What does this fold into?
Amino acid sequence: MKNYILKRIVQMIPVLILVSIFSFMIIHLAPGDPINMYIRPDMTEEEIQIIREDLGLDGTIVEQYVAWLKNVLRGNFGNSVITHQPVADQIFNKLPSTLLLMGTSFVLSIIIAIPLGLVSGMKKNKLVDQVISIFSYIGISIPSFWFALMLIIVFSLNLHWFPTNGMRTIGVESVLDVVWHLVLPSIVLSIDNIAVFTRYIRSNTITQLEEEYVLTAKSKGVPKKRIMTGHVLKNCLLPIITIAGMNLASLVTGSFIIESVFGWPGMGTLGMSAINSRDYPMIMGFTMLSCLILIVGNLIADLLYSVADPRIKQGVKR
Amino acid sequence: MNNILEVKNLQVSYHTYAGEVKAVRGVDFSVSEGETLAIVGESGCGKTVSAKAVMGLIQTPGVIKEGSEINYGGKNLVAQPESEWEKYRGGECAMIFQDALAALNPTLSVGKQIAENLIIHRNCNKREAMEKAVELLEKVGIPEADKRVKQYPHEFSGGMRQRVMIAIALACNPKIIIADEPTTALDVTIQAQILELLKELQKELKTSIILITHDLGVVADMADQIAVMYSGKIIEKGSGRDIFYHPRHPYTWSLLNAVPRLDGDRKKNLVSIEGTPPDLLLELKGCPFVERCAHCMNICTRQAPPTFTFENEHRATCWLHHEKVQGEYPFETGGALCVEKA
It folds into this structure.
């Protein structure tokens, strides 16, 4: 088990390096230049060159990459070209609020999707299933920014139940206030996840119910509900773990669109503005973090598989 | 003897797009305490469906048709609600499946799967149930039961898995065990061990066994009563001795002829029954075996044969036994299948 985890961690290194090379190349290939924020029309070529050197933007792409990599290996992700603040500091400032929003919506979606999916699969093609399926399709098809705007119009502007944007009311320091701000954005973020998860769990429930062990459980006189919770659910966990692992990255990167719509001060907004102003060190820091989390998320998912299904443990041991 | 289970006129149909498939067409049998009833027949003859019906495990699109009776403990179970079935299943009547690997839940330890029975039917708490599970594993001959109880099905060999299945079935001391081809997925030496185990446990616990199989060798060894099924009907039924030494239905004759013999000519091809069973979608007018029967008569194609009863409750559903049918009794059996124990 230990060896397996170690092996997986060593395997991460080349992946991270490749990702960094590609993303470094791509952002430098994109049109635009962070230098544009600093120059005035009346500046001379020399002055511009000085600023360029100052920001570390002179030299070829390779030189710049090597310089960046050296710094990163020392644990320094550089300073933002725009705000001159350290990249790492800024990211860790925004991280908690994103974790709060994405975590809430993720937990909410899992808690709601599991029973919906199980019921839907159990009552395949019955009325309940059809109702749940229709709502899933709607959830998957609705554009989230539109849905967010509709919620704001109805619940914030017309009914005044919830605030339109932000994470807290200025001058108010209470958990309740944060929760109040959290409601609308987490609903929007959950709707899509619930719809997708429900479909996954439904199709898995249907396959699992055809397995013979369900018949055995029935022949033991196990009531139907207990068959679902005691037998089928555990066998349905594998795909849930897979999607959860893939979703782990979004816990950290946040949602660019929804955070913008609700003015949530999180990673999404940060990433958005970094990309818009071609803030290279910031974009790289952001990319590397999400890449790392994605890989770690997959590792955790793989380890959880062996917890959910003991047959996989043997493979992990070897 | 007292019959503990009586099945009367059992009819099971599957409603498919092609129409109503009548898988079981009026089957009667009964089991008394400590007795083994074997139901034999080829694939698709309805033997497994009958067993599932007795367990209440028929799932849509299948239905047990009206007029069917499954009498247990003074009640006709067919008319009972699901809650009554749940008490009966596992508690009074348990089932052993053919493929133990598929039939066991891969994500639960075998101990938990055995304990579940006890928790549901005997109101045991978890600890008592796990202790009992260890005892049961010991009883079915699994060494180091206290360690094995925590292991998962994939960590057991095929024979051991089938023993676990038996332990699950035995957990609540059921009156009846239905074994659906319990040894088909196992190799021959393990088969013998499992059958031996079943016999021992039966003797000790006085359980009745309904044994579903297509293997006449297995039947010869265990069965007190044999029912031969064909196309959803029991066409011959009698004691093991009667079926092996005095079979009265041409289908039984063919089945017995098809059993390879140790003392036979090795150069000879194995005997098989020509043709295929009739499509169960169709309404059968005459005898279902008519197209494959070497002794087919005119009447067989036109009218379903009545059931004739011989001495010792031996019954056969065939026109050959009608008083108007002349001629010699056409089947001779060497009886080598059933080894007599002196």
About this structure: Chain A touches chain B at residues 211-213, 215-223, 226, 230-231, 234-235, 308-311, 314 (CB under 8 Å). Chain A has a mean pLDDT of 84.
